[in-house]
Structures are given as structure tokens and as C-alpha cells.
Give the backbone structure.
Amino acid sequence: MKQPIYDESLDVKWDDGTYGVSEEHAKRADLDNEFMAEFEKSAAMTLISIRLQDDLINDLKEIAAIHGLGYQPMIRQLLKRFVKAERKVLAARNSAMNIQVDTNSALSDDGNKKTVTA
């Protein structure tokens, strides 16, 4: 079965009512449980519940409206950007902490480099 490709730009159309509002274009599909399980898996999105302050939600809605987005797709975008940026920070930190040590040299008591022989 060919996997559908998730198109993030379509989220806006669902949130702004372009899709899914008119019953004229809606038809109930009779889908079996196996198909629905495969569909849910391919959608690759999990419904979550999170409590946020009312002021924060209102601010997010206001900013989203300025960008022509629904606030939920915007929150997904914010989280994706945060994860991408945080992964870069963690990768840089990990890289910095994995200092390559030359096992053939060491510092002498006076701080100068000296060669160590085994």
C-alpha cells in the first residue's frame, strides 16, 4: 500500500474551514478496522492534550492570524523549529565535549607539552 505524503500546508485549510465544514461535500466512508489502523499509522500524528495559560493561547491565536494560520498548525511549526534548533545545540555540545586526546603527549608540571613514551 502506497504511503500518503503528509502535506503540512493543508493544515491551514482544515483550520480555517476551507475543508471539512460543508456537509454538502461530506460522505461517510465505510472503512474496515484494518484500513483505519493503517490510515492512523500513516498519518503519523498523535492527539495530545496540553494545558496552557489563556493569555498564551490568545497570544498564539493572534500571532497565527497575522500569519494566516490556525494556532494549532502554528504551534506544530514552533515545536518543529524548537526541536531542530535544540538538536543543533545538543550536537554542538556533544561535539565540544568529545575532545580528541592525543595519547602520545601530555602536559608537564610547568604546563609545557611533553611526549610520553610507553
Summary: The first strand starts at residue 105 and ends at 107. The helical segments are 10-15, 33-43, 54-66, 71-97. The CA atoms of residues 36 and 42 lie 10 Å apart. The chain is about 50% helix and 5% strand.
